[in-house]
Amino acid sequence: MESIKNRRTIRKYKQDDVPAALLNELLEEAFRASTMGNMQLYSVVVTRDAEMKSRLAPAHFNQPMVTSAPVVLTFCADFNRFSKWCEQRKAVPGYDNFISFLNAATDALLVTQNFCTLAEEAGLGICYLGTTIYNPDQIIDLLELPKLVVPVATITVGYPDECPEQPDRLPVQGIIHEEKYQDYTPSMIDEIYAYKEGLPENKHFVEINHTETLAQIFTDIRYKKSDNEFMSEGLKKVLKRQGFDD
Fold this sequence. Notes:
It comes from Phocaeicola plebeius (strain DSM 17135 / JCM 12973 / CCUG 54634 / M2) (Bacteroides plebeius). The protein is of the alpha+beta class. Helices cover 47% and strands 12% of the residues.
């Protein structure tokens, strides 16, 4: 698929509406994704209302795509629906635990990627927001998610109003392991990351951030240990709050 080879993240959208019929068709096709035990452990909240998008924005660090995109989709790990079905059919569900959350989150992320691929093939642009698992409590409150439902991914959707440069990717030989995992030697790391480190924009990042290496931008500025630990504790609390703590 050319749309996969040429894909890029879209952060600026035309204000043309995304028809509900098209969106629902893409979602229905996305739901054909592989799923744990054919249980379909996911739900999707569709947000179109401008006020609701404005209320969602702080949970995503006020990234402008949240309010400017015609549609915001929140993909959720959902064991609530399946558990209710079990209870109504005289079965006792035992899904209030971490492994069940992980199964549901995997289901939801498989569907998320399916949708993104289909949406881009249909001419839409998307942006994946990793902030969803940073502030899940805010999203849970706003979207009124019940127990056993946790947001795991947010996608902004619309018709592209830009054509940015494609982001770089690591060479495939640095990612694929034949038969067994081959750990990386220092020379292999140098080779794998040489292209990324040599890009003019990345050299500029290093310069303006006054760091010695590109890696330090990730460890010291963008994804700091202290931030990761803080948000990890928040996610643990959310899993307990939503019932995945047994």
